[in-house]
Design brief:
Organism (chain B): Ananas comosus
Radius of gyration of chain A: 49 Å
Shape of chain A: elongated
Strand order of the largest sheet of chain B: 1-2
Distance between the termini of chain B: 71 Å
GO molecular function (chain B): cullin family protein binding; ubiquitin conjugating enzyme binding; ubiquitin-like protein binding
Strand order of the largest sheet of chain A: 1-2-6
CATH class of the largest domain in chain B: Mainly Alpha
Radius of gyration of chain B: 23 Å
Number of domains of chain B: 3
Number of helices of chain A: 29
Largest sheet of chain B: 2 strands, antiparallel
Oligomer: heterodimer
CATH architecture of the largest domain in chain B: Orthogonal Bundle
Number of strands of chain B: 2
Strand content of chain B: under 5%
Protein name (chain B): Defective in cullin neddylation protein
Helix content of chain B: 55-70%
CATH architecture of the largest domain in chain A: Up-down Bundle
Shape of chain B: elongated
CATH superfamily of the largest domain in chain B: EF-hand
CATH class of the largest domain in chain A: Mainly Alpha
Structural class of chain A: mainly alpha
Structural class of chain B: mainly alpha
Domain DCUN1 (chain B): 54-242
Order of helices and strands of chain B: HHHHHEHHEHHHHHHH
CATH topology of the largest domain in chain B: Recoverin, domain 1
Largest sheet of chain A: 3 strands, mixed
CATH topology of the largest domain in chain A: 5 helical Cullin repeat like
Function (chain B): Neddylation of cullins play an essential role in the regulation of SCF-type complexes activity.
Number of domains of chain A: 6
Strand content of chain A: 5-15%
Largest interface: A-B, 13 and 14 residues
CATH superfamily of the largest domain in chain A: Cullin Repeats
Chain lengths: 733, 251
């Protein structure tokens, strides 16, 4: 094979040029044009699709694409102008229907035309970067129908008018509306947005601004919110019925802004029906509606929360500072609990259990409970009341619920140590007077306090329970021992209290009747014989006694009295009348206690086993007392209570306060030393912050007190000031 | 001297022979100078106080003049006599400066060691020299650093033995004396305030912090800050001044 001889392939042109009739294009187009006319005139049934397709195909093939395309544009434009005229001619309500009908027609025609011109659509249009037939049809429709001067505004006005009529309660043809908006959407998102949505939103804003203004003038808050909610739902329904789904967020935000955000402040503060009234009247539905509506707008929830907080603080403050309320501590705490329950319920039902609302509630309670420095005492008294009366018929779960609620209040207290002090006092009284109804309930409360505040908080309280148990065992052993042979002397029950665990104040023992002294001595020698190195002191101010008494007509009563009262009554075994002075001398009971116990013996109706001369309402030092043999009672057992102030009197309060302050000093010092031991050097403010942090579970230390403690530690050389920077303290090991 | 090594003992004797000082001073100096004779002489001749005190016998005489007849120390009577000799009032602040130099442990008493040691370090061995020295001593109060030391010295000097804090009336007396030098405008208010509101002894911390307070505060107390760790007594004092309209309230 020779390499020089290359064979080149050549494509030769057609030998015979296909001669075209110069009128071919013109003729073919006429056919097609006619077809288009027929299509628009609903006469397409007679047309041959195959023939028309071929004609269009040939035109494109023979480079008459341009002619075909421009012809199409011209023809379609002509038809659309016709259509526009007929639409414009439509009367009133028929306008939209006509528009819709023509639109459907146009779409059908467009479909057919596109099919005929399929080849052009596939080859000529992409290569010449022209608009495809279908899109072209839509664009022409847009330009000649929708944007035609006479139609454009009329269309918009009609649509808005219809929507307005629907808003005012008329029924409109939603299907037609849907078709029309669908048309606008089909013409491209910008057509829908520019030609309809924007003006629609503007008009809506105007509508709702006017309507809300009108509502707010004449409706109360609850009604207004109902209306707003209904409007909001209507708009959402409207969108789902005949608007673009993307419009929903826009139109709802318009309604939210106009109906809610703009009137928020006025609504919550509305007189007689605003948020405060809703809270007061437990209007869960209204509150829930308000919550759900307001959460849609910025700052909505915080507006509700702020108003609620200030309302809570205000009412709480009134509650805790009302002198009337202070008279009954149990009622005081019950009211607090009710208040808490009420708002808990509101938050859970109406406010979706919103965490931020719960926090607001908690901080409000914390704020006002601590405004009254007797809150710790009262809360303890409340528990005392519940645990003392035995929660009549209440089940264990009920007790738990009550105690849990009390613990909630307890958590709000800043001065937990004050509560502890009172709780201890009250518990001691309950235990010693045998008033605890349920050991389980007492223990359960103790466990709660322990989990809340730690072991240290409750160790002494627990010690009290242990003492009670040990005392029982000791008494059993005593009566089993030779010492316990007391013959027909009075039965003695001793409760041995560990010093320090109990809130006992040293009080001088009174003179006990000889019978009692006898048993006491026996017990003492038994006890000290079995426990070496201990010391017993009698707390005669805390005991009680059952004594049998026979009165004038021989009727017998069993009197339940305090130890002091017993001492007084026993004196009357050997005398009929005694002066105050004589009683005081014989018993050596402290004057204030003696007066109280005489008062309850002689002045309480139905329990007056003594008679006083002269008769008067108070005990004076010149009074003389007689055994009242005319005493009668329908009960065999008569309980003579001592007139005791349930809550503390002013001086007692001062004293407790002072004791608390004293108790705090070592705690603060210990905290300072703990901190300084680990940090070695620290500035003043950091110490104050740290100490506060360490102690806040028990109480809120006062910065001035902390400062004084620091100074005291400096003086005792636990700390020193830094030589160079006087704000720094150093720990001296 | 017998505890010293042979070589060192020679040096001490040599030093005494040349300088004419006491054995004690010689040993001290030599020790301080690492037993180098030349350095010790340098030190000796460059320190006038040491050289000045040549006559321990005269110091002894001076001490004996004021000494209490029954105990080996100078007591109140001796101090009164000393003041008389010096022609100063016993209440004069210069007495505090003297006590400071003597490192006296408590007020109105000088032990033998304090008296003699103090005069030695001041280079005084006669009442005339003492009197001449008074203006210089008084001038020391103008020295910031020395005043500071004297102020803090005054606390332990004035307080009663075995107590940690200073009796209020003593403290007030001392403050009036000391701040007369310092010209603190609030000194009278301070004393009034303490008598009215506090009426308890003054702790060392409060004492020393007060001088800091006086030094740092401007006359309107405008640079006072509540949280800058002043003793609470000072905090309360500022409050007292504000309440009584003596300084403008800071709000």
């Amino acid at each position: 094979m020779s390499s020089q001889k290359k064979r080149n392939f050549k494509i030769e042109a057609f030998k015979h040029r296909v001669e075209l009739d110069p009128k071919y294009a013109e003729r073919t187009w006429k056919v097609l044009e006619h077809a288009i006319h027929e299509i628009y005139n609903h006469n397409a049934s007679g047309l041959s699709f195959e023939e028309l397709y071929r004609s269009a195909y040939n035109m494109v093939l023979h480079k008459y694409g341009e002619k075909l395309y421009s012809g199409l544009v011209t023809t379609m434009t002509w038809h659309l102008k016709q259509i526009a005229e007929s639409i414009e001619a439509a009367q009133g309500g028929l306008f939209l229907e006509e528009l819709n009908r023509k639109w459907v027609d146009h779409n059908k025609a467009l479909q057919m035309i596109r099919d005929i011109l399929m080849y052009m659509d596939r080859t000529y249009i992409p290569s010449c970067h022209k608009t495809p037939v279908h899109e072209l049809g839509l664009n022409l429709w847009r330009d000649h129908i929708i944007h035609s001067g006479k139609i454009q505004t009329r269309l918009l006005d009609t649509l808005l008018e219809l929507i307005h009529r629907e808003r005012t309660g008329e029924i409109i043809n939603r299907g037609l509306m849907r078709n029309i908006t669908k048309m606008l959407m089909d013409l491209g998102p910008s057509v829908y947005q520019e030609d309809f949505e924007k003006p629609f939103l503007e008009v809506s804003a105007g509508f709702y601004s006017g309507e809300s203004q009108q509502f707010i003038e004449c409706c109360d808050c609850g009604d207004y919110l109902k209306k707003a909610e209904r409007r909001l739902n209507e708009e959402m329904e409207r969108v789902s019925q005949y608007l673009d789904a993307r419009s929903e967020a826009k139109i709802t935000s318009v309604v939210e802004k106009e109906m809610i955000a703009n009137h928020m402040q006025r609504l919550v503060h509305m007189e007689n029906s605003g948020l405060v009234n809703m809270l007061l009247d437990d209007k869960y539905e209204d509150l829930s509606r308000m919550y759900n509506l307001f959460r849609r707008v910025p700052d909505g929830l915080s507006t509700i929360r702020d108003v609620m907080t200030s309302h809570l603080r205000e009412t709480g403050k009134q509650l805790v500072t009302d002198p009337e309320r202070l008279k009954d501590p149990v009622d005081f705490v019950q009211r607090l609990l009710n208040e808490k329950d009420k708002h808990d319920k509101i938050i859970s039902i109406a406010f979706n259990n919103d965490k931020t609302f719960q926090n607001a509630l908690n901080s409000s309670f914390e704020f006002f409970i601590n405004l009254n420095n007797r809150s710790p005492e009262f809360i303890s008294l409340y528990v005392d009341d519940k645990l003392r009366k035995g929660l009549n018929g209440a089940t264990e779960e009920d007790v738990e619920v009550v105690l849990d609620k009390v613990m909630m209040l307890f958590r709000y207290l800043q001065e937990k140590d004050v509560f502890e002090k009172y709780y201890k006092q009250h518990l001691a009284k309950r235990l010693l007077n045998g008033k605890t109804v349920s050991d389980d309930a007492e223990r359960s409360m103790l466990v709660k306090l322990k989990t809340e505040c730690g072991y240290q908080f409750t160790s002494k309280l627990e010690g009290m329970f242990t003492d009670m148990k040990t005392s029982q065992d000791t008494m059993q052993d005593f009566y089993a021992s030779p010492f316990g042979d007391i013959g027909d002397g009075p039965t003695l029950t001793v409760q041995i209290l560990t010093t320090g665990s109990w809130p006992t104040q040293p009080s001088p023992a009174c003179n006990l009747p000889p019978e009692i002294v006898n048993v006491c001595e026996k017990f003492k020698s038994y006890y000290l014989g079995t426990h070496t190195g201990r010391r017993l002191t009698w707390q005669t101010n805390m005991g009680y006694a059952d004594i049998k008494a026979t009165f004038g007509k021989g009727q017998k009563h069993e009197l339940n009295v305090s130890t002091y009262q017993m001492c007084v009554l026993m004196l009357f075994n050997s005398a009929d009348g005694l002066t105050y002075k004589e009683i005081e001398q014989a018993t050596e009971i402290p004057a204030s206690d003696l007066k109280r116990c005489l008062q309850s013996l002689a002045l309480v109706k139905g329990k007056n086993v003594l008679r006083k001369e002269p008769m008067s309402k108070d005990i004076s030092e010149d009074d003389t007392f007689y055994f009242n043999d005319k005493f009668s009672s329908k009960f065999v057992k008569v309980k003579i209570g001592t007139v005791v102030a349930q809550k503390e009197s002013e001086p007692e309060k001062q004293e407790t306060r002072q004791r608390v302050e004293e108790d705090r000093k070592p705690q603060i010092e210990a905290a300072i030393v703990r901190i300084m031991k680990s940090r070695r050097v620290l500035d003043h403010n950091s110490i104050v912050t740290e100490v506060t942090k360490q102690l806040q579970s028990r109480f809120l230390p006062n910065p001035v007190v902390i400062k004084k403690r620091i100074e005291s530690l400096i003086e005792r050389e636990f700390l020193e000031r830094d030589k160079a920077d006087r704000k720094l303290y150093r720990y001296l090991a | 001297m017998h505890k010293l090594g042979r070589g060192n003992r020679d040096k001490v004797q040599q030093f005494i022979a040349i300088s004419g000082t006491s054995e004690k001073v010689a040993v001290q100096l030599l020790k301080a100078c690492d037993w180098q004779l030349e350095r010790a002489f340098d030190a000796f001749f460059s320190q006038p106080q040491i050289r000045a005190v040549t006559d321990s016998r005269r110091l002894e005489e001076l001490y004996n003049r004021y000494k209490d007849p029954y105990v080996d120390m100078i007591t109140v009577d001796g101090i009164s006599l000393l003041c008389e000799d010096l022609q100063v009032d016993p209440q004069d602040i210069v007495m505090l400066v003297i006590s400071w130099h003597m490192k006296a442990a408590i007020m109105c008493e000088f032990s033998r060691q304090e008296f003699i040691g103090g005069l030695q370090s001041l280079g005084i061995d006669s009442i005339e020299k003492f009197r001449e020295k008074l203006p210089a001593l008084r001038a020391e109060l103008k020295d910031e650093q020395k005043f500071h030391e004297i102020y803090n010295f005054a606390f332990s000097w004035a307080k009663e033995k075995g107590q940690k804090s200073l009796q209020l009336d003593t403290a007030i007396g001392m403050w009036q004396l000391l701040f007369a030098e310092k010209h603190w405008p609030f000194v009278d208010y301070w004393c009034q305030f303490l008598q009215a509101k506090h009426n308890k002894a003054i702790s060392r911390d409060t004492w020393s912090q007060l001088l800091e307070f006086v030094k740092t505060m401007d006359p309107q107390l405008s640079n006072y800050e509540e949280d800058s760790a002043w003793p609470y007594l000072i905090d309360e004092f500022v409050e007292y001044l504000t309440e009584n309209g003596i300084v403008p309230s800071r709000k």
